Amino acid sequence: MFIGIPKEIKNNENRVAITPAGVLNLVESGHRVFVETTAGVGSGFEDVDYQEAGATIVPTAAEAWDKEMVMKVKEPLPSEYGYFREGLILFTYLHLAAEPELAQALVEKGVISLAYETVEADRTLPLLTPMSEVAGRMSSQIGAQFLEKSKGGLGILLGGVPGVKRGKVTIIGGGIVGTNAAKIAMGLGADVTIIDLSPARLRQLDDIFGTEINTLMSNPLNIAQAVKESDLVIGAVLIPGAKAPKLVTEDMVKTMKPGSVLVDVAIDQGGIIETVDRITTHDNPTYVKHDVVHYAVANMPGAVPRTSTIALTNVTIPYALQIANKGVSKAMEDNPALKKGLNTANGMVTYEAVARDLGYEYVSADDALRVALTK
Ligand SMILES: NC(=O)C1=CN([C@@H]2O[C@H](COP(=O)(O)OP(=O)(O)OC[C@H]3O[C@@H](n4cnc5c(N)ncnc54)[C@H](O)[C@@H]3O)[C@@H](O)[C@H]2O)C=CC1
Ligand SMILES: CC(=O)C(=O)O
Predict the structure, then answer these.
(1) pLDDT tens, position by position, 132-146
(2) Going from the N-terminus, what domains does the chain have, and what CATH number goes with each?
(3) What range(s) does the Alanine dehydrogenase/pyridine nucleotide transhydrogenase NAD(H)-binding domain occupy (predicted)?
(4) Ligand 2 pocket mutation, candidates 128, 177, 265, 310, criterion most atoms within 8 A of CB
């Protein structure tokens, strides 16, 4: 199979969808990889590194996009929709429930799109996990920074010092992002509370962290109380594929101390905080509303591209190899985890939560692919 790797164009997105080691893997299996020039530079990989691994460097995005399968990191931006065409296999993060225009373009053009974030194996999301680990760890670091006075924050140190109270951090959603946010916030010495909807998950968190953290059941009363008392709130909820529920209301935000900080990591699925009304960028990451600092960057791992690119491609390449070796239909037939990744095919929406949230008819992956075979 011919596989194209365009350079990422989102603001400050320095990750790339493949490393030279990944190229070698694909080339050794008989495939050809076409990498847009300088695509890897932000992650520390030069064109020559890819060439030595067996890739062909192409001078333009168009020459990466015209291959049978395109691998990316972030969801395509409107300027890339022109590259879509019937039968193109697109393997990347998509977050379609929060990206209706992108969903429409993929459907209209008949793209076979597989979203990293909905590939699901044994109730885990293996292609989301490493980036959630990165973003979770970053969220506490970032929150701590924006609590500094010069950054618009309250002017507190999360760990306090002897004789001075520690800062309070509330993490809503105790999955991968939440657990990693808690590790770093606890390491900084903060007083940490995790809120989750799943009693089983709260029990696991209690087993992991012991009495060092507080766990709370997710309900509007507990969230309101915790948000009011917190210096930093981190949004880390996910309902796979679906638009994130608004769990922190504007009224709750108004009860926070001026200079408190909200980091809505779940912004890539639309965000869980009502006052997060825009996606921010690494160039301009925050805005202030009701005197509270809001951070809503949808590609947080893009700020640490070397770590993130390697972590991401460690998990994506084995799936890309299955698609390239067997063809997309057989690869999905053999691997139900990959089939869960299918979001659109042949003009149909094949992920139920995306179809429901965006108002499309849901067609199962099997039915959508059957239509393709009879075309
Ligand atoms: N902004 C960024 O750069 C990045 C954002 N993310 C996003 O972070 C979000 C979280 O991802 P993960 O931690 O990997 O998901 P996860 O599936 O590991 O964890 C989600 C948690 O939310 C909990 N939950 C569901 N409904 C809830 C509710 N009503 N109240 C409280 N908890 C609830 C679940 O029980 C689960 O423990 C996703 O939207 C993901 O796409 C991930 C990486 C980077
Ligand atoms: C998960 C995601 O969208 C990211 O890492 O940017």
Answers:
(1) 999 999 999 999 999
(2) 2-125+305-374 (3.40.50.720), 129-298 (3.40.50.720)
(3) 147-296
(4) 128
